[in-house]
Every structure is written in C-alpha cells, then in structure tokens.
Amino acid sequence: MMERVYNFSPGPSMLPLPVLEQVHKELLCYGDTGTSVMEMSHRSKMYLEIFDASVAALRALMHIPDTYEVLMLQGGATQQFSAVPLNLLTASGSADYVDSGNFAHLAAKEAERYGAVRVVASSRNEQYRFIPALHTQVFDPKADYFHITTNNTIYGTRYAKLPDTGDVPLVADMSSNILSEVYDVGKFGVIYAGAQKNIGPAGLCVVIVRKDLLGRANQLCPRLLNWQVQAETGSMHNTPNTFAIYVAKLGFEWLLNRGGVEAMEQVNIEKASILYNCLDQSKLFKGTALPSDRSRMNVTFVTGDEAKDDAFIKFAAKAGLINLKGHRSVGGMRASIYNAMPVDGVRALAACMKDFEAQNA
Ligand SMILES: *Cc1c(COP(=O)(O)O)cnc(C)c1O
Whose CA is nearest to atom 11 of ligand 1? Predict the structure, then answer.
C-alpha cells in the first residue's frame, strides 16, 4: 500500500488514522453481529445502539444542554440553507444575515426564496478578507433569527467574537469549525454542520436545535426538512446515513479520548500559529485574511505570482503535502488543518514553505 500523505483538503478532508483503522477492522463484521454496519437495518437494536452512542458522544463533547435536540440528517449544510428559513422564517417573516463568505452568501440567497432577508453586514466587496463589523443597532429585534457562518472555509476567516443578538435566535453554520474550539451551545438557537470537514464522511449533517424553536415550520416545509418531524422520529423519518453516523461516532470517541474539544482547541491554536508565524516571517508568502479574523482551520495565502503559487503546490505535493490549492474563486493556497491534521503535518508544511522560499528567493 502507498504511504499515507498529509492531506490539506478543505473537505471531504482527513480523518484520524485510528478511526480509519477501526472502520477497517469492523468493516466486514461488527462485533458479534456477523454483518457490516452498512448492512444493518437502521431500526435494529444493534444499529440504534451505535446511533445513540454517536449522539451521546457529540452531546458530551459540546456539553449540549437537554433543552436542545441533536439531529443527524442527510443533505449537507446546503440543505440546511433551505431548512433554516423553512423551519424558522414564519413569525415576522424577516431574518438577519451576515455576508462573510461564499457559503454565507449562498445561505442568504436561499433564504430570500422564503421571506425577507436583511444583510446586516458584508465584506463581499473586500474579497471577504475579514468578518464585517457588526453594529447591534442595525439588528432587527423582531427578526425570526440571525444567521452567521462561524468559520469561512474559502476565505480563511473566523469570528473572534460572536454577535450579541439578544432574544433573536442566533443560527450558525459551523460546518468548518465545529468541535475545533469551545462554543457555549446555550448562546445559539441552532447550530448546523456538514460532517465532511471536522466530523466524518460526507452525506451527514448535524443539526443542534433549541427545543422551543421546533413547531414553527412553514406549511410547505417538506417533512424531511422539518426539524420537529425529525426530532419526533429520532432523525429517522426516512433512512439516515447509517454508515456516516457510525464513522462520526468513532471520530467523536477519538476526540473524547484526546481530552475533548477543550484539549483540541489548544492543539488547533498551536497548529494555526505555526503557519501564521511562518507567513508573517516570510518574504515570499503572504496571508490573505485580516490577522484579527484569521481562521484556525483554513489558512489562506499567496505569493502574489500565480506561476509561483502553482510551483509551490507541486513542490509541496512531491513532499507528500497534498490538496493545498486555494478555492477556484480566490486562487493561491489554502491549508485546511482540521482536528484530524496532526501537528507534525503542519510542521512539515511550514518546513516545506521555508525550503521553497530559500530556493525561490
Ligand atoms: C462546506 C461548507 C458548506 C457546504 O457543505 P455541503 O455539505 O457541501 O452542503 C456550507 N457551509 C460551510 C461553512 C462549509 O464549509
């Protein structure tokens, strides 16, 4: 078998090696069942144990209060761009959105189909290099909810501070930084996250919703997207992504064994600072995000010369550091360093950048 590389893919991204090894070990025969998890009925006792353990591990990691439901749904974060307004945009019919990146923009565009969307702040005209300044006096106190993207995957920015939305429920797309740092779930009305960045395989989306926000859905909300229906059926209005939920459980348990989100946050701060220190000292590479809003998960940088960017990406790939190409809309480089990326992978990247700079000064 070829040796494993350090994979800096933005998503689907690296999984912890012990998780993959466990999947490998159990793939043909899970426990004493004589079947693969993929072959189990989602309603079987054996599978329900896996499902419940997965939800319990996530609850433990994020200290999710009992006043919240945890749903394990299909359709990715993009489907929640529709589900959020379909479930919540029903009282005043107006919601506030912050336009801090491509996914934030898409979320707002989708919500516009169902009601009034007020974009209260945007950094779109500045290539989303920072989180736009938020002024509470422009927030609508009657909004059905206030939507943010806690980490902007493509542009490499992160909210250093959450907005105070008072009684208006804060809804967060946390796809690219869930479980990477400690968040007080109690500050949110809804958190949703596609799994393929920091949780597990694609095809699963975690939705954490405060129970009092259930039962507000639009008449036309498809039952499959209705959080109340999914809460009442234990995320099994239809067949869930059984295998992804199982792999996610292994990932959650891996994280719990490493000291949980609290310990992982310290590792993530260390990993990000290795790369940002390297960028700040470099004469060749430049970070693209405003330093105060830098992401700890997606580090975006350029040389300022496309040919050099391409040469670096090839140079790094030869050293076993792959998928460093930036998103097609921004170019340059992006190193995605989610929880599963070890510190050694980040050190290897920093060393590779220094080598390349020495050879291309
Ligand atoms: C990747 C990503 C999405 C899109 O996720 P899908 O699962 O492909 O729908 C949405 N929001 C953010 C912040 C992302 O990083």
Answer: 103
Give strand pairing partners of 298: 336
**Confidence (pLDDT) at 1:** 60
Query: In terms of DSSP bridges, do strands 298-302 and 286-287 run parallel, antiparallel, or are they unpaired?
Result: antiparallel
Question: Do 25 and 121 lie in a common domain?
Answer: yes
Per residue in 325-345, pLDDT (tens digit) is 999 888 999 999 999 999 999
Q: Are residues 160 and 272 in the same domain?
A: no
For 23-42, what is each residue's pLDDT tens digit?
999 999 999 999 999 999 99
At 238 the pLDDT is 97
- Tell me the C-alpha distance between 122 and 130, whole Å: 9
C-alpha closest to that of 16 among 339, 298, 272 = 339
Is 11 within a domain?
no
Domain hosting 33: range is 18-257
> Final residue of a domain: which of 195, 229, 257?
257
| Atom 7, ligand 1: residue with shortest CA distance | 76
